[in-house]
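Problem statement: downstream parser choked on a complex file, so we are re-checking the raw output for the thymidine-5'-diphosphate run. The parser issue turned out to be on our end (a line-ending mismatch), but while we're here, posting the original submission so the record is complete.
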Amino acid sequence: MLRTNDMKTLFVTGGAGFIGSALIRLLIAESDWRIVNIDKLTYAGNLESLADLGGNPRHVFSHTDICDRTALDELFVAHRPAGVIHLAAESHVDRSIHGPGDFIETNIKGTYMLLEAARAHWSALDAEAKGAFRFHHVSTDEVFGSLGDSGLFLETSPYQPNSPYSASKAASDHLVRAWHHTYGLPTVMTNCSNNYGPCQFPEKLIPLMIHNAVSDKPLPIYGKGDNVRDWLYVDDHARALRLVFEQGRLGETYNIGGHNEKTNLEVVDTLCTLLDKLKPRRDGKSYREQKISVADRPGHDKRYAIDAGKIQRELGWTPQESFESGMRKTVQWYLDNSVWVAHVVSGEYRQWMDRNYGDRK
Ligand code: NAD
Ligand code: TYD
């Protein structure tokens, strides 16, 4: 019977992405976990987001595709982790509409491969290590479909995914549930609302609008701009993930949300007002002038909103950032980190990773 690594090793998949990198920064700063960051480095993976860690020995990067079962098995044997937090995914709804294949591959097949590799590792552990092991699957509120004008998503809300992205995440949630129910794999799951904050790839609403605004480009609002999302600052999500991973009840799911319902127009107007103050346009006009209405997204979900009462009651989590404070921090971060943005937009971030991580193994 095997023990887990004495160094308290944790696998984080997708750690070069937006939320994964925020989680790793938090864990390195505030815990003693040693992190093995498993990431394929798709277009969305950017190790420059972890540049601040320097060569911290508690962060080990592995350039690995979660669909590669052999590579996953080797990692479990080499590092003997005490748990997994699984974030690796294709994550952008518009991309899933134009090409769903990668979403099926990574989000469904990749989660299956990871579950099987984790189960093989967990089954061979001694009783104590087995009892302490956790597999935390990170998911989205989009699996619950779309709300009307009222109501909130609860953990018990029915699954009604509408986009190829949310359908692939729903499928992965069901696999995780089944692996717990059938094999007893110790799992926890979280379903979170829309995140925003530093290091988000500028294809998602908030970083795209900031980048376009300061680049004198139009701000494309889908349809009427009255779709509602419940916005959560990414560091609040990272804190919630750590809590659920360390203290959540096995087999349970927890909804995480920001108590910040905003229409897309409200979000863009807030960004424009902040930018008008922090980086006024040379012609003295407001960035709002750059807003344009474009064709709506096919199957565009109307409203998402989370009831985060369970995680608050059981684990004492509430968001620390308000929408106003989080948005101010976010806009300031993108203005202060124009090099990060320029590297992403130009593709230079791939070369930065080659220079700093060699062959990325
Ligand atoms: P992201 O697109 O920024 O990052 C995804 C990361 O996964 C990237 O580093 C990418 O290289 C990696 N990856 C993709 N395919 C892989 C594969 N086959 N093998 C290994 N690595 C692979 O995504 P994000 O916004 O950070 O989201 C992380 C997780 O959180 C996802 O599972 C997503 O569904 C979930 N989520 C996101 C949000 C949000 O608002 N962004 C909200 C709720 C839940
Ligand atoms: P997005 O950031 O892609 O997240 P999600 O689709 O997962 O909620 O989009 C957030 C909202 O913003 C969504 O209602 C679509 C809308 N949107 C625009 O209006 N214009 C844009 O250019 C983008 C990317 C999104």
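For whoever reads this later: Residues 93, 194, 204-205, 208, 220-222, 227, 229, 264, 297 surround thymidine-5'-diphosphate (ligand 2) (CB under 6 Å).
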